[in-house]
Amino acid sequence: MSEPLYNFNAGPSMLPREVVEETARACLDFNGSGLSLMEIPHRSAEFKAVLQEVRDLVRTLLDVPQDYDILFLSGGARMEFCRVPYNFLHRKAAYLDTGTWAYQAMQEASHFGEVVTVASSRGDHYTYIPQDYSVPEDADYFHFTSNNTIYGTELRREPEVSVPLISDMSSDILSRPVEVSRYACIYAGAQKNLSMAGVNLVIVRRDALQSTDRYIPMMLNYQAHVEADSMLNTPPVLPIYAALLNLRWLHRQGGVEEMNRRAQARAAVLYEEIGRNRLFHAVAQEDSRSLMNICFVMEEEFAAREQDFLDFVEQRGIRNIRGHRSVGGFRASCYNAMPLEGALALQQSMCDFEQQVLAGK
Ligand SMILES: *Cc1c(COP(=O)(O)O)cnc(C)c1O
To answer: Which of 9, 72, 74, 78 most suits a substitution to test ligand 1, by most atoms within 8 Å of the C-beta?
Structure first.
């Protein structure tokens, strides 16, 4: 057995090894049919069963009420930045600006109606989630990014506002329970916490649809996708199948409560070490810190050792902790598949590297 590898990449990201292996097997022979998953008709009973089961699992795991539809669409999370205002913005929408993705979602919406930025931490490099803001009562919805993947900040509970919520949960979906009934729409690109790249999960409240009077191009129209059962065009079969396997895994592990417990445990190990270690400090302010993307930088005086540290952890099986180019430093992304051992291995490496540096080596 070779040393374990811990992949801390922010996305595409680590999946349970068994999910990767079973997906690979289905690429060669799907369900003993002798055909590859890539070759079977997407309207076959076999694939329809896949779609049904993955939808049922999302409903069970996130406790999605019956008046919501669950869609699997393509185009990446960024496609939803435009599908959301197309479908839900009549006159006015409120947005919380907490990072690059939140900002881009807001920019896109501004072409569809009045967009109110209720608060922004842009001037402080997005190091925190603003707390004090008010949302106009007549807004059609309030959009926020639950986890800011690049900056490592997160809202782990629903904001207290009176209008329907819409959230980009690309990087923390299924890492904790969510009060779905507060939302008109939840969306997430798959490649952070759900599957491989190529599909989005979209959860929409049925009665929030079909309420704008603009023409919505068919592929951008959620109602059309609901009516076509996520098969308006050929769906991305492979990422949908990988999502199914991943959600079966998640269900076996104990669901989102268990994922939340694990996320808390991993993050506690790492933030504690960052706080203790003389070489590093955390990027995000304490009350806004993400459990998913743990961002930290080297203290000014040790800045020249950044590459040394990356090489050091590489030898211990730790991969892809370089920070996003707009933040620098390091980012340890700990999605559902990251075992506690991965966080402990990184913690130990930080500790050992500190000793080496302070001993003048
Ligand atoms: C990665 C990410 C996106 C962009 O996802 P694509 O699928 O590449 O479009 C959007 N929002 C958040 C929060 C992300 O983490």
So the answer is: 78
Dist CA 80 CA 145 (whole Å) = 12
List, chain by chain if needed, residues with CB within 6 Å of any ligand 1 atom. Answer: 11, 76-78, 101, 145, 149, 168, 170-171, 189, 192
Which residue, among 209, 178, 239, 183, has the nearest Cα to 47 in the 3D structure? 239
The string of pLDDT tens digits covering residues 297-317 is: 999 999 999 999 999 999 999
What contacts 280, CB < 8 A, 6 or more positions away?
274, 296, 297, 298, 299, 330, 350
pTM of the model: 0.97
Tens of pLDDT along 3-43?
Answer: 789 999 999 999 999 999 999 999 999 999 999 999 999 99
How long, in residues, is the chain? 361
Which of 310, 322, 313, 309 shows the shortest CA–CA distance to 342? 313
Residues assigned a catalytic role: 101, 168, 192
* Cα Rg of the chain (Å, integer): 21
